[in-house]
Each structure stands twice: as C-alpha cells, then as structure tokens.
Amino acid sequence: MDVTAASKHSYTVNLSILFNELPLLERPAAAAAAGFTAAELWWPFGEEHSPSQAEQDALRKAFTDAGVQLTGLNFLDDLSKGARGTVSVPSERERFRANVPVAAELAASLGTKALNALYGNRVEGVDPAEQDALALENLVLAARAAHGIGAILLIEALNRPESPDYPLVSAAAAVEVVDKVNAATGLGNARFLCDLYHLARNGEDLAAVIDTYADRFGHVQIADDPGRNEPGTGGLDFEDLFARLTAAGYTGRIGLEYRPAAGVSADSFEWLPRELRASR
C-alpha cells in the first residue's frame, strides 16, 4: 500500500483485540515498543461493572508507565460473555447505570476523550420499542457523563453476520440514534463510530458512507474484510479509504481494531511505517 494516504492520519491501537496474547497490564508497554503512543479499550474488566480501586489503579499505572494515551474506552459491554453491549437490555439497566460514573471517572483520570456505548442485542420476548426507549434514556445519561469530562459519546454499528441480534447494522441506523441522543440532550456530543470493517461486512458502500456521514464521525476503526485482519490481507482499498477520509475533512484518529493474521500482534504492522504509528 502506498502510505501517502495513511500518513495524513493519526492512529490508536485497540488493546482488547491486538496484543491480547499478553496479559492486559502488559499490553500498553507492548504497544509502546511497537511505536504506538495511543491506544483504546473495550470495557477491560469483563463482567465487573464496578472494578476495585486497586484494579483501576493498576490499569492507569500500566498506561502512564508506558507513556501511552488511552484515547477511547467502552462503557460496560459484556463482550466477554458474548453480549454486544448493555445499553438497551432491561436486565442490565442497573449495572449499566452504575457503570457510567465508574467508566467516566476512569476515562477522566487518563485524559480519555471518547466513550463508546454498545447498543446491546435484542432480547427475545421484549418489545423492541421498549428496548429502544431504555437505550435512549441510558444514552442520554452516558452523553451527559461524557460531556462532564469533556468527552464525546460514540454509537457504533456492528455487522449482522457476526452480531445477528444487534439492531444497529447500518451507518444510517447508528446515525439515527446519534441524532436522537443529541436532540434529547442538546449537548451535541454524541457521534458515530464508523467501523469500516463492520460496514463492509454489511455490504455498505464505504465511499458513500464517508461522503454522507463524515461530519457525524467521532471515531473511525479499521480491519480488512474478509478476515478482520490487518490492512492488505483482505479486499478493502485502504489507500482510497484513507484518502476519502482526508478529503471529507475527517481529522480524528483511526483505531486499529483487527486480529493479527499470523497471531503475533507485533508482526502485523508492516503496512504502517513505524514513523507513522506515534499519535500526532
């Protein structure tokens, strides 16, 4: 890949999927050794919505000692047990709401300016309208908490093949929720997390998504499709996509949220020259 287009952007590495061959607390240092200075995380404490102060302190220390900035953090997502977020799930109402100030405080302590709230799967026997109403209530709380620490709230579309019970499986569906949250809060800090891998898996026209919604993007994440591995292993034209993001005025970071094709994270960055890995 011609790196000219890639050089226009700044990158952050997702340490929940990359370097996960290592214990969590060793990943920031491994990312730094590979040349990265910014990283993001899914909710890093499994099903524990309110981890102990010692657990939080250890995570903070791992990032500060490594000199790596935590740029993004998920609210309670329950990905460790196969869920796709807790925002719209009635049985998780209290856990999510208890997690909001915990996640916001952790983010604030690390200077993290983006919090991602995965919408949650449809629940059998529950009216989707009821779930959507709960989601809006919870996202309003999350947006206000994010605003309180000077952060944005991200809302993400996933892909239907891998997340068949997740209702936001198009850019338009996610942006509709973004607009509803902003209308309800008046804060304007809800933004679309545009994961190009998920949208590609859904068969969306990625160029059209960028052209249509770039002004709503709060973050962009990438993996090649098929495979969810590093750029160059699938069929996506990242040179073109990066150029389109630049042309559309996107100036935020690009999150590397892929699985290393050969299983070793440190060997999966040859497509991105080391001098481009440090966040700018």
Overview of the structural elements:
This protein has 280 residues and is an alpha/beta fold. The protein contains eight helices and eight strands. Strands 1-2-3-4-5-6-7-8 form an eight-stranded parallel β-barrel, surrounded by four helices. Helix 3 (93-109) packs parallel to helix 4 and helix 4 packs across helix 5. The radius of gyration is 18 Å and the shape is globular.
> What would you report as the Rg, rounded to the nearest angstrom?
18 Å
Helical proportion, percent range: 25-40%
β-sheet strand percentage: 5-15%
* Physical arrangement of strands within the biggest beta sheet: 1-2-3-4-5-6-7-8
| Form type | globular
The biggest beta sheet is recorded as: 8 strands, parallel, barrel
Total number of beta strands? 8
* Spatial gap, N to C terminus: 21 Å
**Secondary-structure element order, N to C:** EHEHEHEHEHEHHEHE
Mean pLDDT comes to 97
Q: Helix count, per DSSP?
A: 8
